[in-house]
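Q: Convert this sequence to structure tokens.
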Amino acid sequence: MNEDRSDGRRPAQGTRADRPPGGAPPELRPLTARSIVLSTLLGHHPPRLPARALVRVGALFSVAEGTIRVALSRMVAAGELEQRDGTYALTARLLERQARQDDSRAPHTRPWHGDWEVAVVTADRRSAAERAALRQTMTGLRLAELREGVWLRPANLDRPLSAGVRTQCTVLTAVPEEAPEELATRLWDLPGWARSARELAEALDRAREPAERFTVAAAILRHLLADPVLPPELLPPGWPGARLRACYAEFARELADLLRDHAADRRQGAGSGR
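A:
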């Protein structure tokens, strides 16, 4: 997004012009105590668990109990978690992240009739922080930037625009004269996203150890956040979005079963000790 064209236009967000040749490979980030705690709570509803359950999850990845408890204390101090009666829960700003992740797993869509949602930045004298915040918001709303300050997408998502967007932008509904398939291809690197999605789905199928599956599942969730969720008419044949969501859903069930089994073990242990 830093490259300027001779005609004053910038490459559209997600186009192949601003990506490495062949598309970037899926990112598999190493597990840390913080990432284990955060990913577990983000994937759990409600996002509150006792410390012993989080310690049990950490043990699956050979992370010592003391390391998990230190991470919990640091996350509370950083405002990421709140602690009450031996349980830990996400704070408000991370609840917003959980909501975005939940939506990426099951997007709310509506029938598409060919119209596009357009937001044109019209506010003056915005600070750098305001510009950066708006860009992050627009990306979270799955809009793409056609050129500086002009954001758009097919109007097939059933979700409101935030007050911040409406304060800084003029919002329009339009029907482009350009073929919608061609416009979508300019705005998003659809082949690149699909290629990475297939690689991640295959990686989760191959993974057997809990730590490996956890790492791949976290990468899948990040990748789903970047899915433009276009109408089926605009997607290439064989689009792997549904398959990738199914893969993550299977992992989420595994994690839920693990936590449920842990809770059952604790109840049985408490009963036998009476």
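The chain is about 50% helix and 10% strand.
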